[in-house]
Amino acid sequence: MARKSFTNIFEAVRKGTVEDVQYFIEQQCVDVNAKDNSGNTPLHIAVQHWHGDNEMIEFFISHRVNVLTRNKKRRTARICAMIKMNTLTANIADKANLLTQVVEPGNVESGNAVVTAMSLLTETGEMLQKVKRIMKVIKMLENAEK
């Protein structure tokens, strides 16, 4: 059941579910290509607030959102997704750098170093999975642009 307490579709995209967004589009007749003050469409917002689930993005593509729309920064949703991927990749590099510091000779004997290394490896693995999923988003958006 969609929560109808959101004031606009952009808030629903940021904080809600696909059902919340669907309510705005189908019940409130909100244009799927509406723009906010920054020129972002709901698809732009979905990509910018993406946390690993592609359902919202798939929803917009299936509802014929104009994937070529550029916001005021001249970015399409695919460019926003590529920026998201670059940020994730940079975070992985940071974790790898920390890992090399933790496993330097002299630190490895410490039990804390092993726990820290395992934690960093787990976080890095999770980030790599997100990179794989955002790459799927980029590919979906690229295909929709054709």
Count the helices. How many?
A: 6
Oligomer: single chain
Overall SS class = mainly alpha
CATH third-level topology: Serine Threonine Protein Phosphatase 5, Tetratricopeptide repeat
User: How many E-type strands?
Assistant: 0
The CATH homologous superfamily corresponds to Ankyrin repeat-containing domain
Shape call: elongated
Question: What is the helical fraction, as a range of percent?
Answer: 55-70%
- Nearest-angstrom radius of gyration? 19 Å
The CATH class name reads Mainly Alpha
Mean of pLDDT: 87
Order of helices and strands: HHHHHH
- State the distance separating the first and last CA atoms: 34 Å
Low-confidence stretches: none
How does CATH name the architecture? Alpha Horseshoe
